[in-house]
């Protein structure tokens, strides 16, 4: 067998031995692996440099976070990144996995209420808070992409108050649901249960509805 420089063949042998022994069949071991993987992702999200020049890297980390948190909802093989849409470029698309949606669950209800076929996500890796124009950009993508009426804006450092007011107005006037998620929110969710992201997005919607009252 040809030896590839840099590969630790002793580690490879150890891993193979563990697989053959059934080591990874233990649910407790698998939970620890998932926990450590999430902790590593949280560290990468926090340590990623700010700025547009690092936007692709941060976007990919966000995509990984969504995959880990919504693995039972989204169709992972069909995820798209940075694709063209009527002159713009959508950061992330997470198609819903219809056959896996639990009847009556929040995602099943949103599929009907907002005609959701995919979750569209726009990512901002800036030190400043997202402004109205960032929600307008997401709104434009949601309106033209024909994937339903749901989008998520992930903003590394949160949102200006008037930006959240704009999201509320669009929900009221056009029934387009644009949910805010800060970088801190995403990191916190990755340390919680597998349903935490969905639950948090539900609370974001409820907050917008309360503001509309």
Secondary structure layout plus pairing:
Elements (H helix, E strand, L loop, with lengths): L8 H13 L5 H21 L7 H15 L10 E6 L2 E8 L10 H8 L4 E7 L7 H14 L4 E6 L5 H14 L2 E6 H8 L5 H17 L1
Parallel strand pairs: 3-4, 4-5
Antiparallel strand pairs: 1-2, 2-3
Helix pairs in contact: 2-3, 2-7, 3-7, 5-6, 6-8
Fraction in beta strands: 15-25%
**Total E-strand runs:** 5
Here the CATH topology equals Trna Endonuclease, Chain: A, domain 1
Distance between the termini: 69 Å
**Biggest sheet overview:** 5 strands, mixed
How many structural domains can be distinguished in the coordinates? 1
Structure described in brief:
With 213 residues, the chain is an alpha/beta fold. The chain has helices at residues 9-21, 27-47, 55-69, 106-113, 132-145, 161-174, 183-190, 196-212; strands at 80-85, 88-95, 118-124, 150-155, 177-182. Helix 5 (132-145) links the parallel strand 3 and strand 4.
